[in-house]
């Protein structure tokens, strides 16, 4: 079964699968950095998780904080979307925050061979994933 990254970009998925571990790490960091840079504000949970990945560390506390953050943002996003029969600016911001946090959760909690999930989530966090794709490609080459 193809990965979700493959459904977004087969070329990017193939490059990721062929990459060395340091290149994969650089690609995930580039994707997460780009996703966070697109946010209007950076929650301390997001900053903490990005710092953890950057330093190659993680803790159960940061993983739990990310899960709670994602649940809260996704829950509010779905409530707003359902209440308005569609999406609005506030809902889209919540969606972006949840996807950026999901990218970071995949980065800090998953094994390196599953980091493609972080890249996929980062790409989905923005309305223009081409910049994230460009940065990831650069890190993989």
What features would you describe in this structure?
By secondary structure, the chain is an all-alpha fold. It has one domain. The chain is built from eight helices and no strands.
Estimate percent helicity.
over 70%
Shape: globular
Number of helices: 8
Q: What share of the residues does DSSP label as strand, in percent?
A: under 5%
> Tally of extended strands?
0
Distance between the termini: 25 Å
Radius of gyration based on Cα positions: 15 Å
The assigned structural class equals: mainly alpha
Q: How many domain regions?
A: 1
Quick check: average pLDDT?
93
**What's the story with the biggest beta sheet?**
none
Uncertain segments are none
Order of helices and strands: HHHHHHHH
Keywords:
141 residues, 8 helices, mainly alpha, globular
């Amino acid at each position: 079964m193809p990965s979700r990254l493959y459904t977004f970009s087969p070329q990017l998925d193939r490059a990721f699968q062929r990459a060395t571990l340091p290149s994969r790490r650089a690609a995930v960091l580039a994707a997460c950095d780009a996703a966070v840079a697109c946010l209007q504000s950076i929650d301390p949970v997001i900053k903490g998780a990005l710092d953890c990945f950057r330093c190659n560390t993680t803790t159960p506390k940061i993983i739990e904080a990310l899960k709670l953050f994602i649940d809260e943002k996704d829950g509010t996003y779905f409530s707003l979307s359902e209440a308005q029969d569609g999406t609005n600016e506030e809902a889209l911001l919540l969606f972006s925050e949840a996807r950026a946090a999901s990218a970071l959760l995949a980065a800090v909690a998953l094994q390196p061979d599953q980091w493609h999930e972080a890249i996929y989530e980062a790409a989905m966090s923005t309305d223009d994933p081409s910049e994230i794709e460009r940065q990831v490609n650069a890190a993989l080459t």
